[in-house]
Amino acid sequence: MALELGAxxxxxxxxxxxxxxxxxxxxxxxxxFIPVGQRVLVDVSTPTDVLASYxxxxxxxxxxxxxxxxxxxxxxxxxxxxxxxxxxxxxxxxAQEHCFPQIIMEFADTLLVDTYSKEAFGGxxxxxxxxxxxxxxxxxxxxxxxxxxxxxxxxxxxxxxxxEAEIVDVNSGVELSPGVKDPHLVEAFMQQVHHWTEQRAxxx
Length: 204
Hints:
- The protein is an alpha/beta fold.
- The protein contains six helices and nine strands, in the order βαβαβαββαβαβββα.
- It has helices at about 25-30, 50-55, 70-80, 130-140, 155-165, 185-200; strands at about 10-15, 40-45, 60-65, 85-90, 110-115, 145-150, 165-170, 175, 180.
- α5 (about 155-165) packs parallel to α6 (about 185-200).
- It starts with 9 loop residues before the first strand and ends with a helix.
């Protein structure tokens, strides 16, 4: 349904502690329904040996969430294994930090900004700091930026207006409960995105 409504990418969460985790045994079958070029693996602080096994799966991109205390050597290893063009880095940056950790920028072309939480890596349902996202994406325009965190049909137009994000990541904002998507919310979200995009399109 998401693909039919115009979603460009679909993420499959492999982090076992997530209520949205997909059992590894079901991943290959699920990927058969997602076209090549639109498959995103989502995980948290993946050990390099585990990532080596995941690399054998036909994913196009790898979205890695992690705390800032993860060794740079680990981030570098992810980049070396996956390639910076396919690696999406999503560091958990505390709310009081106003500077993006530049040290990780050399390892990935795409950076994801999610709402900070001490308890969870994403999926909190709480909107993030849109002004901070806009500042970072403007300052580092040579990178591709993904806006995540508490996005829903009720606020996506406002979020896009505030950030001018080119890529948005929605999850809990289109769910009935953790891990259970609501088709009506998915459709409403996509309608809002398409409407905002059409409004911004240049007129002849």
